[in-house]
């Protein structure tokens, strides 16, 4: 199943670490850096993921912009993010965009990621050691279930 994941992961590479674990197991997954390839063509993909570290309570702007400009109508999509401190509202902006595009939202995976932004730096950062191996295993399980569901019910 041809899968693309559009991502932004620049703070500590936390999100990319999670995505690499998935891409290692699934050779048909292509990781696309939203900052490096903002005009990517997505119409050929069966499944599209949007992934990001959380920046000021939302997915990074480059991912939001790419979703707005490049996501074709009616695609199967999923979300994945890492953050310093988890809060459900982080997905609102990306949800709004995928909703407008009539996307089928298949699920969201999130975990904490090492965070040294602003005052946290003075404390040596928070969520040290995250994403952990357990986080990576959780992401793999999430992705496996998602793909199984799609294969049964495309
Ligand atoms: C400029 C900036 C803003 C951030 N804003 C938030 C935030 O609003 N909420 C949060 O939980 N984490 C926030 N973080 C922490 C990151 O979301 C977290 O470290 C994430 O794992 C970074 O992912 P990345 O390394 O893949 O970019 C922020 C980090 C930076 C650098």
Q: Would you summarize the structure shown here?
A:
The chain has helices spanning 14-25, 61-70, 92-100, 133-152, and strands spanning 3-8, 29-33, 47-55, 58-59, 76-83, 104-112. The chain has 154 residues and is of the alpha/beta class.
What is the topology?
Layout: E1 3-8, H1 14-25, E2 29-33, E3 47-55, E4 58-59, H2 61-70, E5 76-83, H3 92-100, E6 104-112, H4 133-152
Helix pairs in contact: 1-4, 2-3
The structure holds flavin mononucleotide.
What does this protein structure show overall?
- The protein is an alpha/beta fold and 154 residues long.
- The protein has one domain: Rossmann fold (3-Layer(aba) Sandwich), CATH 3.40.50.
- The protein contains four helices and six strands; from the N terminus they run βαβββαβαβα.
- Strands 1, 2, 3, 4, 5 and 6 form a six-stranded mixed β-sheet that branches.
- Helix 1 packs across helix 4 and helix 2 runs parallel beside helix 3.
- The protein is globular and about 45 Å long.
- The protein starts with a strand and ends with a helix.
- The model has no long low-confidence stretch (mean pLDDT 96).
- Bound molecules: flavin mononucleotide.
- Flavin mononucleotide is lined by residues 9-16, 53-57, 82-85, 113-115, 117.
- Residues 9-16, 53-57, 82-85, 113-115, 117 line the site of flavin mononucleotide (FMN).
């Amino acid at each position: 199943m041809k899968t693309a994941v559009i991502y932004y992961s620049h703070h500590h590479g936390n999100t990319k670490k999670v995505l690499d674990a998935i891409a290692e197991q699934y050779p048909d997954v292509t990781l696309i850096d939203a900052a490096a390839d903002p005009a990517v063509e997505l119409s050929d993909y069966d499944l599209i993921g949007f992934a990001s570290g959380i920046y000021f309570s939302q997915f990074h702007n480059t991912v939001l912009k790419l979703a707005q400009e490049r996501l074709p109508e009616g695609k199967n999509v999923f979300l994945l993010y890492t953050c310093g401190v988890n809060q459900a509202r982080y997905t609102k902006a990306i949800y709004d965009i995928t909703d407008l595009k009539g996307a089928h939202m298949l699920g969201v995976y999130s975990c904490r990621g090492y965070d040294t932004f602003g005052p946290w730096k003075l404390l040596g950062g928070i969520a040290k050691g995250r994403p952990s191996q357990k986080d990576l295993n959780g992401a793999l399980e999430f992705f496996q279930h998602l793909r199984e569901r799609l294969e049964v019910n495309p």
